[in-house]
Amino acid sequence: MEFHVWLGFVAAAALLGVVPGPGVLSIIGYAVGSGRRVALASVAGMAVGNASAMSLSLAGVGALLAASALAFSIMKWAGAVYLVGLGVITIVRSRSGAFGGVAASAPITARAAFMGNVAVGTFHPKTIVFFVAFVPQFISPDGDYISQAALLVVTFVGVVGVTDTIYAVAASQASHLLRGPRMSTWSRRAGGGALIAAGVATAAARN
Predict the structure, then answer these.
(1) Degrees (nearest 5) of the Cα angle 116, 122, 127?
(2) Residue ranges per domain, the chain?
(3) Which distant-in-sequence residues (6+ apart) come within 8 Å of 29 by Cβ?
(4) Residues 56, 52: Cα–Cα separation, whole Å
(5) Residue 203 near residue 80 (C-beta atoms within 8 A)
(6) Is pTM beyond 0.70 here?
(7) 145-176 vs 3-18: helix crossing angle, rounded to 10
(8) Each residue of 45-79: pLDDT tens digit?
(9) Secondary structure of 129-145 in HEC code, one letter for each residue
(10) Helices (H) and strands (E) in the chain, counts
(11) Three-state SS sequence of 28-73
């Protein structure tokens, strides 16, 4: 793979990372609802999920999803239901702090956020289909396929990991401005709303 081709892929990956999608919305939801530590755990989970999705697409699963409307729909709705359900749980939990000055219940744990975004990143069907259509353009037929594919996977995960981290830190900083039990409750509700929005965006994906 020539260096200028790799730089082109870096630029494309950075653009994809900056544009908000279901993954970014879920990270923002965790940041606003549960703080920086949980948000960064969700970024790590998304990185693992992206690596898995990209590997699956390069292994041929993306072609299967592109060809099978049923398989695409199953993965799409499973991801959407998960995100919406998690958003609803976050909002319901926030209500425990909305009455009588009682502190809000425990937020989503870092482990749950990590595992949740591993699932979101891995099983987002639009991502897998996109990879199988987009990434091969940067692979030279004259070079070793596996080494080039591995380089692109590492590059994409690294670049998007940086943009996801920026979103996580910025959103968590904004949430720190909302001090006090009442504002904390609304902060968590906003985070739950962002997770629900991520689920809706996933459900809206078309094959």
Answers:
(1) 120
(2) 22-203
(3) 87, 90, 191, 192, 193, 194, 195, 197, 198
(4) 6
(5) yes
(6) no
(7) 30
(8) 999 998 988 887 777 654 555 566 666 676 667 66
(9) HHHHHHHHHHCCCCCCH
(10) 9, 0
(11) HHHHHHHCHHHHHHHHHHHHHHHHHHHHHHHCCHHHHHHHCHHHHH
d(CA 109, CA 129): 31
Residue by residue, DSSP assigns 77-107 as: HHHHHHHHHHHHHHHHHHGGGSSTTPPPPP-
pLDDT in tens, 167-196: 999 988 877 665 445 555 655 666 667 667
In the chain, the amino acid numbered 99 is F
What distance in Å separates the CA atoms of residue 122 and residue 139, rounded to the nearest whole number?
22
Distance CA 190, CA 122 (A): 25
Residue-wise pLDDT for 26-50, tens only, equals 888 888 878 889 999 999 999 999 8
| Contact present, 136 and 59 (Cβ < 8 Å) | no
Going by C-beta distance under 8 Å and a sequence separation of 6 or more, which residues neighbour residue 101? 181
In Å, how far are 54, 107, 140, 188 from 62, measured between CA atoms?
9, 35, 20, 35
Give the integer Cα–Cα distance in Å for 146 and 143. 9
Cα 86 from Cα 45, distance rounded (Å): 15
Alpha carbon of 134 to those of 54, 73, 93, 129, 130: distances in Å? 11, 21, 40, 9, 6
